[in-house]
């Protein structure tokens, strides 16, 4: 019986798809972790894990005190 993917993976994959499609462009500011948690109706920890996964994939970059942004994509 197949299991649903973890909520943080669903969120990360949603943002990754938006980045890859061009809906979110390099330099675009992402919503705060609180806004993501509210939008997806998940805990702050789940939203944070999703953002951490995107950071590990080098799709986003954090700027302390400023926010989280779509990373510049190498080779584009």
Commentary on this structure:
By secondary structure, the chain is mainly alpha-helical. It has one domain: Orthogonal Bundle (Arc Repressor Mutant, subunit A). Helices cover about 45% and strands about 10% of the residues. The chain has helices spanning about 5-20, 35-40, 45-55, and strands spanning about 60-65, 65-70. The chain has a two-stranded antiparallel sheet. Strand 1 (about 60-65) and strand 2 (about 65-70) form a beta hairpin. The longest helix is centred in the first third of the chain and has 15 residues, at about 5-20. The radius of gyration is 12 Å and the shape is globular. The relative contact order is 0.21.
Summarize this structure as a short list of keywords or feature phrases.
76 residues, mainly alpha, Arc Repressor Mutant, subunit A, two-stranded antiparallel ribbon
Could you name the ranges where pLDDT drops below 50 across 5 or more consecutive residues? none
CATH overall fold name: Arc Repressor Mutant, subunit A
CATH architecture: Orthogonal Bundle
Secondary-structure element order, as H and E? HHHEE
Report the average pLDDT across residues: 93
* Overall CATH class: Mainly Alpha
| Strand element count | 2
What is the beta-strand fraction?
Answer: 5-15%
Superfamily (CATH H level) name: Winged helix-like DNA-binding domain superfamily/Winged helix DNA-binding domain
* Relative helix content: 40-55%
Keywords: DNA-binding, Transcription, Transcription regulation
Domain HTH gntR-type: 5-73
Protein name: Winged helix-turn-helix transcriptional regulator
């Amino acid at each position: 019986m197949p299991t649903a993917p973890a909520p943080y993976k669903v969120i990360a994959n949603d943002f990754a798809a938006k980045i890859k499609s061009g809906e979110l462009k390099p330099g675009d500011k992402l919503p705060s972790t609180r806004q993501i948690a509210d939008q997806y109706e998940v805990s702050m920890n789940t939203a944070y894990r999703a953002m951490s996964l995107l950071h590990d994939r080098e799709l986003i970059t954090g700027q302390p005190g400023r926010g989280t942004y779509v990373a510049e994509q190498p080779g584009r």
